[in-house]
Amino acid sequence: MGILEWLVDRGYSGIAFKLVYEHESQSGSMEDVERYDVVALKDNVTPKRFTWVTYSTRWKPMTYSVQNETDIDHVAYREALEALGGIRDRPSWYVKRVQEEERRTYIDKELAGLYPTCPDCEQQMVIRHRKRDHAPFFGCKSFPECTGTRSVDSTSLRRIMSLLDEKSRLTMR
Ligand SMILES: [Zn+2]
C-alpha cells in the first residue's frame, strides 16, 4: 500500500508529500525507514503537517505511521502544497475504487436478499454443495451446529453465482 491510499483510507484529503529521507537504519538494526514530509486536510477541514513513515525489516511486515502531526493555518498549508508539488489525491485509482466500493455495497445488499433464512435457527443461509453429486443447496451458516437446509431454485442460483463472480473480480479492497 502506498502513502496516498493509506492516507485517503484514514480520512485525509488535499494531500501533498515529498520523500525526505529513506533507508535510514533505526538504532543499529537493519530496519529500512522511509519518511515523507506531508501536508493534508484531516476530515476535509483541518490543515495538518506531519511526517508519514514506513518501516520494514526482513522479519516483520511493513508498518506505517503518522508522526508529529500538528495543526497549521491555511496560509501555511497553501505554501506547503506548492513546495511539495501540489495535491496528489485525485488519481484515477481513487475514482475507480470509489466506484468499486459502491458496486460492492450494492452486490452485498442484493445477495443478502437472495439468501433465505434458516428454517431451524433463522440465520442467513449460504450456498453449499452436496458431497455425493455436488448439487447446490442452501445450508445454514452455523453448520455443523445447525443442519437446516433449503432447496435452491436455478434462477436464484444463477444470480448468486454471477454476483459472487463479479465480486471476486472487483480487484481493489
Ligand atoms: Zn440454522
Structural overview:
Strand 5 (125-129) and strand 6 (136-140) form a beta hairpin. The longest helix has 23 residues, at 92-114. This protein has helices at 3-9, 74-83, 92-114, 154-169; strands at 12-25, 32-42, 46-56, 63-71, 125-129, 136-140, 149-150. A 4-stranded antiparallel sheet has the order 1-2-3-4. The radius of gyration is 24 Å and the shape is elongated. Helix 3 packs antiparallel against helix 4 (154-169). With 173 residues, it is of the alpha+beta class. It folds into 2 domains: 3-90, no CATH class; 93-169, N-terminal domain of TfIIb (Single Sheet), CATH 2.20.25. The chain binds zinc ion. Residues 118, 120-121, 123, 140, 142, 146, 148 line the site of zinc ion. Zinc ion binds at residues 118, 120-121, 123, 140, 142, 146, 148.
Compose a concise summary of this entry:
The chain has 173 residues and is α+β, with helices and mostly antiparallel strands. Helix content is 32%, strand content 33%.
Q: How do the strands and helices of this protein lay out in sequence?
A:
Elements: H1 3-9, E1 12-25, E2 32-42, E3 46-56, E4 63-71, H2 74-83, H3 92-114, E5 125-129, E6 136-140, E7 149-150, H4 154-169
Antiparallel strand pairs: 1-2, 2-3, 3-4, 5-6, 6-7
The structure holds zinc ion.
Helical residue percent?
25-40%
Strand content: 25-35%
Name the poorly predicted regions: none
Largest sheet, if any? Answer: 4 strands, antiparallel
Sheet with most strands: strand arrangement: 1-2-3-4
Q: What does the overall shape look like?
A: elongated
Topology as a string of helices (H) and strands (E): HEEEEHHEEEH
- H/I helix tally: 4
Instruction: Tell me the total number of β-strands.
Output: 7
What is the averaged pLDDT score? 88
Radius of gyration over alpha carbons?
A: 24 Å
Bound molecules: zinc ion
- The rounded distance between the terminal residues' Cα atoms is 11 Å
Structural class: alpha+beta
- Overall number of structural domains: 2
